[in-house]
Amino acid sequence: xxxxxxxxxxxxxxxxxxxxxxxxxxxxxxxxxxxxxxxxxxxxxxxxxxxxxxxxxxxxxxxxxxxxxxxxxxxxxxxxxxxxxxxxxxxxxxxxxxxxxxxxxxxxx
Amino acid sequence: xxxxxxxxxxxxxxxxxxxxxxxxxxxxxxxxxxxxxxxxxxxxxxxxxxxxxxxxxxxxxxxxxxxxxxxxxxxxxxxxxxxxxxxxxxxxxxxxxxxxxxxxxxxxxxxxxxxx
Lengths: 109, 116
Prior knowledge:
The complex is a heterodimer of chains A (109) and B (116). Chain A has strands at 4-7, 10-14, 19-25, 32-38, 44-51, 56-59, 62-67, 72-77, 86-93, 97-99, 103-108. With 109 residues, chain A is mostly beta strands. In chain A, strands 2, 4, 5, 9, 10 and 11 form a six-stranded mixed β-sheet that branches. The radius of gyration of chain A is 13 Å and the shape is globular. In chain B, a hairpin with a 5-residue loop joins strand 4 (31-37) and strand 5. Chain B has strands spanning 5-7, 10-13, 19-24, 31-37, 43-50, 65-69, 75-79, 88-95, 106-107, 111-115. In chain B, strands 2, 4, 5, 8, 9 and 10 form a six-stranded mixed β-sheet that branches. With 116 residues, chain B is mainly beta. Chain A binds chain B through residues 4, 31-32, 34, 36, 41-46, 49, 51-52, 89, 91, 93, 95-102, and chain B through 4, 6, 33, 35, 40-43, 45, 48, 56, 58-59, 91, 93, 99-101, 103-110, 112.
């Protein structure tokens, strides 16, 4: 069974800092990987989707990379802002979706 | 509608009662998923529907849980004889298709279930 791990579980950074969130998975037979953000009491918002054939995707200040062979993905957030504070989840899409437990990010003004 | 809609947003029930949770997917999305998110846990897959195919029920934790999807659109997740460990946020998602490279899931805001 696919296992998805996210490190760190929680992260606190000052505003303006660049940061990296990590996601690892055990089974490299995936179609794609998706990064989400979840705000307290809210559903999940899709941030980036990387197909298995791609190495990275970019959207604004966000850049996600995928190394399928090593079972790793990173989400890079540039110039962090207090509004980026949320829980970030990665999910791998194989026969079904498997989610990590998330990284709780706090950006301090 | 513009997004995935779930109702109710909050549900408090007594142990042993049955509950029904509703999900309205994005119009035109053929795939619909139910997940459970317990406090401090990741999302746990429960069940998914793809078009008229038989649903994948492999994630349902017990036979007290069931779901149906009428007319390929609205879905209802039913929990019978609720237990305190059923307390969680139940999230619904839909996508244009299931599996494969184009599966981008859009989530509702969830239903927070509290079993007293």
